Amino acid sequence: MKKLLFLSFCVALLGQGCIKKTKTNVPLPHRQNLSAAVLWKLGKVSDPRISPDGKYVIFGIRTANIAVNKTRNVIYKLELNGGTPIAITDSVDNANSAQWRPDGKKIGYLSARGGDMEFWEMNTDGTHKRQMTHVKDGIDLFEYSPDMKHILYANGVQVDPTIEERYPDIKLDKAQGRIYDELNIRHWDTWNDGKYTHISYANYEEDGIYDKGTVDIMKGQAFDSPLKPFGGAEQITWTPDGSAIAYTCKKFRGTQYMNSTNSDIYLYNITTGKEQDLTENNKGYDQSPAFSPDGKYMVWLSMEHDGYESDKNRLMLMDMSTKLVTDLSASFDQITDMATWADNKTIYFISETNATKQVYACHIGGPKGYEIEQITNGQQDYNELAVGKDGDKLIMIGSQTTMTHPAELYAIDPVAKKDVQLGFANKYLLDSINTSRVQKRWITASDGKKILTWVIYPPDFDSTKKYPALLYCQGGPQDAVSQFFSTRWNFALMAAHGYIVVAPNRRGLPSFGQEWNDEIAGDYGGQCMRDYNSAIDAVAQEPYVDKNKLGCVGASFGGYSVYYLAGHNLDKKFKVFLAHDGIFDFTSMYGSTEEMWFINHDMKGPYWKDKDNNDYKKFSPLEYVQNWNTPIMIVSNELDYRVPFTQGLEAFTAAQEMGIPSRLLTFPDENHWVLKPQNSLLWHQAFYEWLDKYLK
Predict the structure, then answer these.
(1) Residues 54-98 pLDDT 10s
(2) What is the Cα–Cα distance from 270 to 160, expressed in whole angstroms?
(3) Is the pTM of this model over 0.85?
(4) Distance between CA atoms of residues 266 and 551, nearest Å
(5) How many angstroms from the chain centroid is the CA of residue 316?
(6) How far is CA 74 from the centre of its chain?
(7) Residues designated catalytic
(8) Four-residue CA torsion sign, 311, 317, 323, 325
(9) Helix/strand/coil for 358
(10) Are strands 186-187 and 190-191 parallel, antiparallel or unpaired?
(11) DSSP single-letter state for residue 20
């Protein structure tokens, strides 16, 4: 135990080390630098679930099969008292969303082994696997009721009429057309086909699920729960006595749906069939309900303002008998996430601070009513959190990442405020890889404020040499450059290719207070762009940075940033650009994107509403394209409906017509991201080929 603590401590120290005028971190002869191929060999650890008796944890490890271009998830079980992880499913099961039955005697999970994704169950040692549901077209999630009398699940239900139903007198079974009379025609990467995700519950017995007792609690409603496109099981839960289901839903259609973030939490009583809107007084997001073990309180995540998706995410508490609501984060200038109860008086949650994600506790009661306490600290992200008990002993497990290591499970001691690594899913590969150094720097912005900037150095860094450098522009636009480890924008991989990476937390990124987070709205081309320049200019002053070999890369808002900076690169500071899924023209973007609240909030309304509002013109990279003078690569995917494919096509056409060296990479089967293994390998190959051509 002490050895593991020491190793964790050493890793933290290395991550914060200072750069000296000596050769540092010289690779061992048998080690290799990180590559895209190795990156996809690393397992992705996720979804820890502690057993009811607190003695075991189950979790998933997802790995890629490059040859078949798919990923597969395997469920592992680990005894917390010094055990070894044991696989209890296999790659054929491709099991996910595993959870313990409330009595701890079975493990339920989702699998498409029988065709569609369905609820399966097995013994805790992985034996006696049985398919428990047979729902048409499968299900998306499930949860046992605490009394084990029911399960709830989510599945797609046809509510709006199909083309054949609209025109029954004509044979149209082969027609591919879509007809819409209102907005919300597509979302993220999917066209609206008249199906909506509904919550149902069914009778549960150990030998199966009985369709006779199935109830669609949203029957006939043209709304989704959980929220699309990213909502999951965290948005739905049972009350502790199993008498009611709390679910998250936004009950709007058409234009109102696309312009509002006003979701609510509804409580459906399974005995009476009656429903109550618990959060109707709040006009922003309300989601992720969780009940105290005694059922007296509900905690949830809430944003105050309608139409602002990056508002402060508050931790709210409701007394279920009086319906009195308390904002537990009123004096806490940070966003909250992943709230879970440990007992009737303590809530644990994750919050971002200074571009890291840490674990916090909220203690209810006492002289102050409630008090928030930071539990973890350091240069890491906690992305998931599971809490349980072994007798009176609290068990807390989280998945942790850094910029140089993928997720692993850690046991957290909330009293000692220490964590110890539990799992080593990728040890055999990580031990063979040269590690990059991550430095945390505070750089002075043009207005005198400090910008937390991560600087990632090549694994064989030698401060007596000169290196090309990349300015990384973050997306979101409000999504912190934290300690994430990704198969897409992976800083360790960029560094392994010989680049110094400069990743600033420019204006508009969370974890530095709400004022800093809000500053980007209505100022896309303003202070945030000056922050980018301040960061790269400061690092470029270092003697080991080659000022003549600076590149600029980014995706989403980062892709927009690349386009904008390309139009203001008159001094040719940057020698190459690479923009992924960025906005090129706000006016054409307005008419083709699929979440109107986003652009309406940040651009202060539609382009025709206020003729004095020139943000559409002032901030569109289109308006500065005549200044482009630098090679640029553009990635734009055909299933991206958030920043539609045509934005990249417009930018590429402009570059080609002006004779700017340029390249377009597009994927017909990818959305705003690149998710398929072989597509990712192609993306990385083209990415580094383009950068190396101009910077090496």
Answers:
(1) 999 999 999 999 999 999 999 999 999 988 999 999 999 999 999
(2) 25
(3) yes
(4) 49
(5) 22
(6) 21
(7) 556, 640, 672
(8) negative
(9) strand
(10) antiparallel
(11) -
